[in-house]
Design goal:
Keywords: DNA-binding. GO terms for molecular function: DNA binding; DNA-binding transcription factor activity. 57% of the residues lie in helices and 2% in strands. It has three domains: 111 residues, Multidrug-efflux Transporter Regulator, Chain: A, Domain 2; 58 residues; 61 residues, no CATH class. It is elongated. The longest helix is centred in the C-terminal third of the chain and has 34 residues. It starts with a helix and ends with a helix. The protein is mostly helical.
Length: 256
């Protein structure tokens, strides 16, 4: 199953094989583990705590998950994994669906297409290729950047391969986005050496985020780690919004 499949299913329609069945949390993990290898019972309970899914309970207090619950979890996990959306944004969308509304997009106009397989990001690249990582030559081809530009981006720390080798390592989708953006910036005369402040700013932002979530991240239970990751995403989104507002505000003043 590709990364795109979970999101393309109609929310709540369910898998025909599971229709009418009631599953325990172990069976739910079995259904989701292929698409989401890191899924755990603690993660599912965390999503329940946040109101993303509400399973029924037996008289003894055990959770009972329906097919719709499983597909709802799949939908949430796919959006979180592929678009890094905060759970609050996803919950607001799901709450609108539960009220009988039919929002065309997520708040802020975000697309429901997973980031890993969106046409804008992947072009003709398959989700499977992105999942395994990109070779140097694939990154050059798919980004539209020259080989020299990609090497320069690696030298300036703007992209990195797992083994820190621009020739032999595999690059992820983030490296692809960076290379594509920098290829377009180069057409305006902006070279990698001009972009070093972005790397420094990103490192400072990451340090700020890590300092805030450190108490949660230091705990060993999965639920705490999930909360830390969600808090980190939320803070990062707010920082990006702040940066965009500051820059766009200055550009607007240039026009007046």
């Amino acid at each position: 199953m590709s990364a795109s499949q979970p999101i393309r299913r109609t929310l709540g329609t369910g898998n025909e094989r599971l229709r009418g069945r009631v599953l325990n949390i172990g069976e739910v993990l079995g259904e989701l583990s292929t698409d989401f290898p890191g899924i755990s019972a603690s993660k599912i309970r965390f999503l329940e705590e946040k109101g993303l899914v509400t399973p029924q309970r037996t008289a003894a207090g055990y959770r009972k998950y329906t097919t719709a619950d499983v597909e709802r979890l799949r939908f949430v996990l796919a959006l979180q994994r592929d678009q890094y959306l905060p759970l609050k944004v996803i919950k607001d969308y799901l709450d609108a669906i539960d009220r009988g509304e039919r929002p065309e997009s997520l708040p802020g106009g975000m697309s429901l297409t997973p980031r890993a397989v969106s046409e804008q990001l992947a072009g003709e690249l398959s989700a499977r290729t992105l999942a395994r990582g990109l070779t140097f030559n694939e990154l050059v081809r798919e980004s539209g950047a020259s080989a020299d530009l990609v090497k320069s981006l690696a030298n300036y720390g703007l992209i990195a391969a797992p083994d820190n080798s621009s020739e032999n390592g595999l690059y992820d989708e983030h490296a692809l986005k960076v290379a594509r953006a920098c290829a377009k910036l180069q057409s305006h005369g902006i070279e990698p050496r001009h972009l070093r402040p972005f790397r420094a700013a990103a490192d400072r932002e990451l340090g700020l985020v890590e300092s805030v979530v450190a108490p949660l991240a230091s705990r060993r239970d999965v639920a705490s780690k999930a909360r830390a990751a969600e808090t980190a995403r939320e803070i990062s989104d707010l920082c990006l919004n702040l940066h965009s507002a500051l820059v766009n505000g200055h550009i607007a003043r240039m026009e007046s």
